[in-house]
Amino acid sequence: MKPKIYLYGTSGQYGNYLAALTEAGAEPVLSRDLFRACGCDGLLLPGGGDIGVTLEATDSFLIRSFADSGRPILGICRGMQALNVFFGGTLHARIPGHQQVQGDLIHPTRARGLLSQLLGPAPLVNSNHHQAVRVLGEELCLLQQAADGTIEGFCHETLPILGVQWHPERQSGARLRADAVDAGPLLRYFVGQCSCKSRHMNTPLLKLIHGYGSSGKGGRIRTASRKYLLAQQEKGRIAAVVPGERFTIFDETTRRALQQYPHLRQDRDLERENMGVTFVFMRRF
């Protein structure tokens, strides 16, 4: 069975990404329905517009969901920058020399570790961006740099998370370039990670962390997420949704959940700590 890889978007978007993932052996899932991400084996964060001071709520939700469940993530261009900001890193708002008026630049880089194994120690890659990683986020390891020091690739120390500043979907498969390295091995590696049975999303429950504030962005995200999840429960797509502050031994659903999932006992009766948490049970118990 082909691994399913989620991209947040609508029909007609990200054609190059979909084609590259398909060629690498995956089944892309392009949708703005975040619930569909729950059944996917990996997440691809594509390129796009600039990132502001903070991440968009959708970016944060998806990265948190896949990272917490140990599912692989590949960030490309803007997607790599989003991962860096999520893990506490910073960005350059604008750097020179990495973008031209039309088409991609091709420039030399130095790779190490995983990217060196996949692409060689000095891969030529495309470049078409003006934002870039300034300071790496926590637990992110440098894997690739351009000649001017710009960070072109990184991975997470412990999680199956990889980011590249360039576009592997534009130099692999049907779009392979004679003047740049074949990026097919990188995409196939990512798809292979998503195929691993140990990381397959058969998780019976999710613990979503939204934010603790009763107002502001955290509160709005929590309210919107719970409204959406409860609607999915009514449609029969989710077995049960329990707000964290209601996750106590006085709640019937919680008591049944604790019998099935005893490791959740550490989370019970933590009303204040659980205010920003929602427990989502995917299977009936």
Integer-rounded radius of gyration: 20 Å
Structural class: alpha/beta
Taken as a percent bin, the fraction of beta residues is 15-25%
Overall pLDDT, averaged?
Answer: 87
Which range best describes the helical content: under 10%, 10-25%, 25-40%, 40-55%, 55-70% or over 70%?
Answer: 25-40%
Largest sheet: 9 strands, mixed
Low-pLDDT sequence parts:
197-202
How would you describe the shape?
Answer: elongated
N-to-C span? 27 Å
Q: Order of strands across the widest beta sheet?
A: 2-1-3-4-11-10-9-6-7
Tally of individual helices:
7
Give the beta-strand count: 14
- Helix and strand pattern: EHEEHEHEEHEEEEEHEHEHE
Question: Your description of this structure?
Answer:
It contains seven helices and 14 strands. With 285 residues, it is of the alpha/beta class. Mean pLDDT is 87; it is low at 197-202. The strands form three sheets. A nine-stranded mixed β-sheet has the order 2-1-3-4-11-10-9-6-7, with helices on both faces. The protein has a three-stranded antiparallel β-sheet with strand order 12-14-13. Strands 5-8 form a two-stranded antiparallel sheet. It is elongated. The chain starts with a strand and ends with a strand. It has helices spanning 15-23, 57-68, 78-86, 113-119, 184-195, 216-234, 252-260; strands spanning 4-8, 27-31, 42-45, 73-76, 90-92, 105-111, 124-127, 132-135, 140-146, 151-156, 161-164, 205-209, 240-243, 277-281.
